Amino acid sequence: MARTGISDEFADQIVNTARPAVGDALRSVIYYTPDAYDVLYVRSDLYDGDVEAAREAKRTLVENERLGFDSRETYKVQTGAEDVEPAIGEYEFTVRVFSDGFVNRVLTDDHGVVLTTNALYLNEFEELAVSLRTLLVDNEVP
Questions:
Q1: Which of 19, 77, 82, 97 is the most buried if burial means most Cβ atoms within 10 Å?
Q2: Radius of gyration of the chain from Cα atoms?
Q3: pLDDT at 93
């Protein structure tokens, strides 16, 4: 049972968008809202196939990425004001770079997706983020 209320069909759409775009570098896919999260995919060599262990391991990551709901609103206000930086357009997605991989966050109003991956090229994230953002916009929170 999904804790976020996400449908199986929508969960499959998210994973089926991420998996081919990232390939074997994909480590996990997490769908989240301000109040709940679901681990939709974990690569088979991680957490010994234990879904609850994966969920617990991702808890702190999700708590941190939830801060994006607030910062996204801050950027939305800034992009509407002519005299406030950054005057660089609307927020699209976040990529956090680590020594052995990446965290990619895509948000819309009240829900988002976090992906963890091994090292990739940044243009792969942009293509994937555009696809995931479209899915999120088309599937507003229930």
A1: 19
A2: 15
A3: 86
Has residue 74 got a pLDDT over 60?
no
Q: Is 128:94 a contact under the CB 8 Å cutoff?
A: no
3-state secondary structure the chain: CCCCCCCHHHHHHHHHHHHHHHHHHEEEEEEECCCCEEEEEECCCCHHHCHHHHHHHHHHHHHHHCHHHHHHHHHHHHHHCCCCCCCCCCCCCEEEEECCEEEEEEECCCCEEEEEECCCCHHHHHHHHHHHHHHHHHCCCC
Q: What is the mean pLDDT of the chain?
A: 84
Sign of the Cα pseudo-torsion (69, 74, 79, 81, in order): positive
CA distance readout (Å), 20 to 17, 103, 131: 6, 17, 12
Q: What does pTM read for this prediction?
A: 0.82
Nearest CA to 36 out of 69, 5, 15, 60 is that of 5
